[in-house]
Amino acid sequence: MPKSDQIIDIEGFRFHQRPLELHDPDGNLVSLRPQSLRVLSVLSEQAGELVSKDSLMERVWADTHVTDDSLVQCISEIRKALGPEAGALLRTVPKQGYRLDVSLARPRRPSLLTTVRIAVLAILAALALSALLLTPRQQAASEVQSIAVLPFENLSGIAGQAYYSNGLAEELIVNLSRIADLRVVSRAASFSVAQSASDPRQVARELRVSYLVDGSVRREGQTLRITAALIDGANGENIWADSYAGAEADVFDFHETVLSELVRVLSVRLSQQERERLGVRGTRDVDAFDNYLRGKELAGFLTASQNEQAEEAFAEAIRRDPDYAAAHAQLSIVLSMRAEYGWTSDVTNTLARAVLHAERAVALSPDLPFAHFALGRLLSRGFIADLAGASAEFERAIELDPNYTDAYAFYAIVQVANGQAEDGLNTMAEAFARNPVPPYWYYMPLGLANFYLGDYEAAEAALTELLQRNPRLQNALRILIATYGHMGRLDDAEWLVMEYEALGVPATITDIMQVINIEHPPYREAVIDGLRLAGLPE
After folding, report:
1. pLDDT range class, residue 352, cuts 50, 70, 90
2. Which of 48, 202, 238, 322 is 20 to 30 A distant from 346 in Cα terms?
């Protein structure tokens, strides 16, 4: 249990016990009400432990009579302050209380064995949940060679250069994924497992692949030195390795050479179309490429300031090379997320710009999977809701890149919205089969599909997993409330309604149905019936 004068690290935020203050990753003081600071103090004193609702009420409001709503409001305020990435750290344990999972500001480094055990347990839990929710028929995966590209080590001696080495590895992932005879693990999965385990055999087992690609990048001035190796996942031995040294402009030649060598060593059969696509360079401008990689790294941080910086990087890449399709597609995603997260006061203009860049990306590079994904993602959102157009774009993205698991997951969302829950469930089976470490949001379409098919236990399992990782997802809360209504679990529904209202949104059936992006009448009725059974007012 941390002492009262210690500083607690919460995903880069630093919480001081004396005085009670929360500082963001840049060191700025975060504004929180005194009650919320006291709630955070109690939770941090018992970090990692379940703190009951009654205990929190007694510690924070000892001499004052307040309702449960006061506590829920404080929890909501803390989560909002910490942002979407840190929301999963403050977990709700229904009908019991809350748990804050944090570390001391300068913790002792855990042993590799401990880290590996934690990673293995987490992955096994995710796989077990996937197995529970998907039938054996749906769990079948294609019998093709499997490979994962690990993050390239940054040997430049400058921490700020990690975006470049990571970006080079991801570019290999993107290109390898377009080969039909390879199953390529996503960046999120391979990078996550690589952080927790050093033995290549273990990494291969956890990612369920036969081969690994590893490498390093040393970038000094305008020169590059890059190493790359293909590793046998069964014994951890190198099958092939090489190094490349030259000017920064040679980075494009490096990619082509490594791709060709991997295809040769693995004896992969390429169609004529695949050969042509692999030979296409996104840009020939070194500075445009650098800004593109920088923008992708920034876009991964879900904050308003880094979203703005990502836009600047992609805009500079486009200024350097107006025909850089991938940069247009990435800029479209950044603008779309700005509208979705409420980081702009001019949603209409922001979305118009997003559509413009997505359509430009598709026009510039009709065979670029990410361009179709970016446009499909936009068309699938509630503020546009062109489900037919979105379906066509996702289908094309998957046709071009059979390993594009995010495209599978978004396509499943559209299928469910169109009244095709069974198809959506099958599509999610493909996404889970191809991605051994799925991101938390994959459990949303999985939960929706099971809910509309009437499998409320499977829906609850998926939505609970989702909300444990991000408790502020309003649509997940809405559907889980309806799920509990159908299951007759009214106490659980009541608890969730308080969590939902604490986000500042009304919990009436009319208000909820206005924001539910489902047009299929039987599915809408299933939500309405569940909300009524849960006791929500009209």
Report:
1. very high
2. 322
